[in-house]
């Protein structure tokens, strides 16, 4: 069985807001039977201009149903503009996380919401520009979708792209092309960080703390967990970050290298070059 | 959770009490190494050879033609590697699109290393295309690996006819009989296969034990090199408790084969007709005329298999699905896809597989709950309009 969180199983077993709305203000459908999952999402605005009612119908696995259900709870009471800013990561986070291979369910939720908002604003039922170039013909994923998902989720490999939007997960013929798109996004990121003349943006203390937490959660911990290790953020004081190793990393003879070459290097790269990382016991 | 209803016996079976009892002495008092040159080890070796005789008897082979392995996957790998290495890269490998990954994997490995591989198509009920096989057999030396019965649909291939065809052109024929052994009669005196794989945990022996039948005279390169065990054909100290368990399981299966098939098939058929009657838009996958007595693969259209399985699991019912989402893959079962099952049904396939411990009450429980689960998920599906 998948390692689903209690929130996923709760929304799967007791999905909220299932069904259809008579005369919705916005309706969006994404996915297809052939692809193995599909979602129709519709909403109706209240007199205050906020989303008053939302319903969904999903064909898919437990995490697809749960992602759709939790999304309906997230959008109620929001303006269309506020709802439009919901990301697939927020959907996954609201469920306490999804297995890597199931992240595409959260993307499907976000795309259905986007399609419904597009329908509300334009009256059009289709989202895709027919001129868009399809890269993955097995799952009908366009170049623009791959680029957007890669950028928004900080992806850096084809396998991650597969997990988030299925592109490349069928016959595999498009994997080289996806790799080039991913490489392009990685180059954009590097360029953005090193653009000449751009003074580095000064982060507030709060922004710095949030960014450090995010980098550790999103990039560092998964890398360590793959080797049955882990790290915990203990404290942040100015540019000094205190951590504690957990799991296999605790007491590992290579933990010093991990601290310096992985954690400190990553935080210096992504947050600030002045950062130093120390272990709790040595602080 | 309510009482466990286990209908996933093509995945694994429970260890029969008689098998467990037979194994226990070899986990306690009789722990000697069967290769040792003392009486304590020799006594253990006699039990290993007794087990070999029992396994051989189940398929009407000679005990000297049985090699114990760790599982069905090892048996399949050993057969394909062992023969392909002997035949050399000029030989063609012929298999089908619906084989288990333990056969498709090694065959594709050899394709990457220069062998020609032909994967035969199947028809809508999962039957292999014999015309395509006849065509593929022309052109020199070949190894054919085709399963006796399919693990997902239960479809039984006409192995007698297939083996005769292969032997008529001088080819080597291996069959993955992991799902067939213990469920339908097998007789290698009558069916001229050269190699046959079987697995213990599919017939109420423990996991971690299998066997490979190698017809006397078949050339097979040794694939696991070490000690002189198994007459030098597979090095490695024998897993004695499991071997004894497999022997006991084989003896039980041989004794109950005809009676069990006659008992289980009507239960399966009642499950099938009951589900078709109570669940609209359901379709059975597999060959209704040539199918394992214990297997029902049924697709519930417009809903997805993993979601069905999780609801059934909440109700204490264990089954399995060929849906993509349940496997971590993005593509649904290669078997169901190869059969041309339409997309409306391919993601919602569920396999119920029975055993000698399945009761009528188990079937009643499934018949009571599945229609409700299907209805609940269909109420969620955007593809159900009524």
Q: What tags apply to this protein structure?
A:
heterodimer; A: alpha+beta; three-stranded antiparallel sheet; three-stranded mixed sheet; globular; B: alpha/beta; seven-stranded mixed sheet; four-stranded antiparallel sheet; 14% strand
Main sheet characteristics of chain A:
3 strands, antiparallel
> Strand share of the residues of chain A?
15-25%
Terminal CA distance of chain A reads 41 Å
Cross-sheet strand order for the largest sheet of chain B:
2-8-7-6-5-3-4
> Helical proportion of chain A?
40-55%
Largest two-chain interface? A-B, 30 and 26 residues
* Multimer state: heterodimer
Protein architecture, described:
- With 283 residues, chain A is of the alpha+beta class.
- In chain A, 46% of the residues lie in helices and 18% in strands.
- In chain A, β2 and β3 form a beta hairpin.
- The longest helix of chain A has 21 residues, at 205-225.
- Chain A starts with 5 loop residues before the first helix and ends with a strand.
- Chain B has helices at residues 17-23, 39-59, 72-87, 101-112, 130-137, 159-168, 240-278, 305-314, 324-327, 334-338, 343-346, 360-380, and strands at 5-6, 66-69, 92-96, 116-120, 142-145, 172-176, 195-199, 210-214, 282-285, 295-300, 317-318, 320-321, 349-353.
- The longest helix of chain B has 39 residues, at 240-278.
- Chain B has a 7-stranded mixed sheet with strand order 2-8-7-6-5-3-4, sandwiched between helices. In chain B, strands 9-10-13-12 form a 4-stranded antiparallel sheet.
- Chain B is built from 12 helices and 13 strands.
- In chain B, α4 links the parallel β3 (92-96) and β4 (116-120).
- The model of chain B has no long low-confidence stretch (mean pLDDT 95).
- Chain B has 386 residues and is an alpha/beta fold.
- The chains are: A alpha+beta (283), B alpha/beta (386).
- The A-B interface holds A 1, 9, 12-13, 15, 18, 29, 33-34, 36-40, 57-65, 101-102, 139, 162, 166, 169-170 and B 302-304, 306-307, 310-311, 313-314, 323-326, 328-332, 343-344, 347, 379-383.
């Amino acid at each position: 069985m998948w390692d689903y969180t209690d929130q996923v199983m709760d929304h799967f077993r007791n999905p909220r807001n299932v069904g259809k709305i008579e005369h919705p203000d916005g309706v969006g459908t994404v996915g297809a039977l052939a692809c193995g999952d599909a979602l129709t999402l519709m909403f109706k605005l209240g007199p205050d201009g906020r989303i008053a009612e939302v319903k969904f119908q999903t064909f898919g696995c437990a995490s697809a149903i749960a992602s759709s259900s939790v999304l309906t709870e997230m959008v109620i009471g929001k303006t269309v503009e506020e709802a439009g800013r919901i990301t697939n990561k927020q959907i996954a986070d609201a469920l306490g996380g999804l297995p890597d291979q199931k992240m595409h369910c959260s993307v499907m939720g976000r795309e259905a919401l986007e399609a419904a908002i597009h329908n509300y604003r334009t009256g059009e039922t289709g989202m895709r520009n027919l001129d868009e170039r399809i890269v993955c013909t097995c799952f009908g994923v366009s170049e623009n979708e791959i680029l957007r998902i890669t950028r928004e989720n900080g992806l850096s490999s084809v396998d991650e792209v597969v997990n988030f939007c299925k592109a490349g997960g069928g016959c595999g013929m498009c994997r080289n092309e996806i790799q080039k798109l991913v490489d392009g996004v990685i180059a954009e990121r590097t360029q953005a960080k090193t653009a000449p003349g751009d003074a580095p943006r000064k982060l507030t203390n709060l922004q710095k703390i949030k960014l450090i937490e995010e980098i550790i959660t999103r990039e560092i911990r998964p890398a360590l967990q793959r080797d049955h290790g882990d790290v915990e953020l203990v404290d942040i004081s100015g540019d000094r970050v205190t951590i504690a190793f957990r799991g296999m990393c605790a007491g590992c003879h290579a933990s010093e290298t991990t601290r310096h070459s992985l954690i400190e290097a990553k935080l210096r790269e992504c947050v600030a070059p002045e950062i130093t990382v120390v272990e709790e016991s040595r602080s | 959770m309510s009482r466990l209803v286990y209908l996933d016996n093509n995945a694994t079976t429970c260890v029969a009490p008689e098998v467990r009892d037979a194994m226990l002495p070899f986990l306690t008092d009789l722990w000697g190494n069967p290769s040792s040159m003392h009486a304590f080890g020799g006594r253990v070796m006699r039990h290993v050879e007794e087990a070999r005789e029992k396994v051989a008897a189940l398929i009407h082979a000679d005990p000297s033609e049985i090699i114990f392995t760790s599982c069905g996957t090892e048996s399949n790998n050993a057969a394909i590697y062992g023969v392909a290495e002997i035949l050399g890269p000029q030989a063609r490998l012929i298999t089908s699109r619906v084989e288990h990954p333990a056969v498709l994997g090694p065959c594709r490995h050899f394709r990457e290393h220069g062998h020609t591989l032909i994967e035969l198509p199947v028809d809508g009920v999962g039957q292999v295309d014999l015309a395509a096989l006849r065509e593929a057999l022309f052109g020199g030396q070949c190894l054919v690996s085709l399963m006796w019965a399919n693990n997902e649909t239960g479809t039984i291939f006409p192995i007698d006819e297939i083996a005769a065809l292969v032997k008529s052109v001088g080819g080597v024929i291996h069959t993955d009989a992991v799902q067939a052994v213990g469920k339908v009669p097998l007789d290698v005196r009558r069916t001229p296969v050269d190699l046959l794989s079987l697995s213990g945990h599919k017939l109420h022996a423990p996991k971690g034990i299998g066997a490979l039948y190698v017809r006397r005279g078949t050339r097979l390169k040794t694939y696991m090199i070490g000690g002189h065990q198994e007459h030098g054909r597979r090095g490695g100290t024998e897993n004695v408790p499991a071997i004894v368990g497999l022997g006991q399981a084989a003896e039980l299966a041989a004794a109950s084969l005809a009676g069990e098939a006659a008992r289980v098939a009507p239960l399966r058929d009642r499950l099938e007709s009951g589900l078709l009657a109570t669940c609209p838009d359901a379709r059975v996958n597999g060959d209704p005329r040539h199918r394992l007595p214990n297997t029902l693969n049924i697709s519930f259209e417009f809903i997805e298999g993993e979601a069905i399985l999780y609801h059934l699991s909440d109700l204490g019912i264990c089954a399995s699905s060929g849906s993509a989402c349940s496997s971590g893959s993005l593509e649904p079962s290669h078997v169901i896809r190869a059969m041309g099952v339409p997309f409306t049904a391919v993601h919602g396939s569920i396999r119920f597989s029975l055993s000698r411990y399945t009761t009528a009450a188990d079937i009643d429980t499934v018949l009571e709950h599945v229609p409700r689960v299907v209805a609940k998920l269909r109420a969620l599906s955007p593809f159900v309009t009524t």
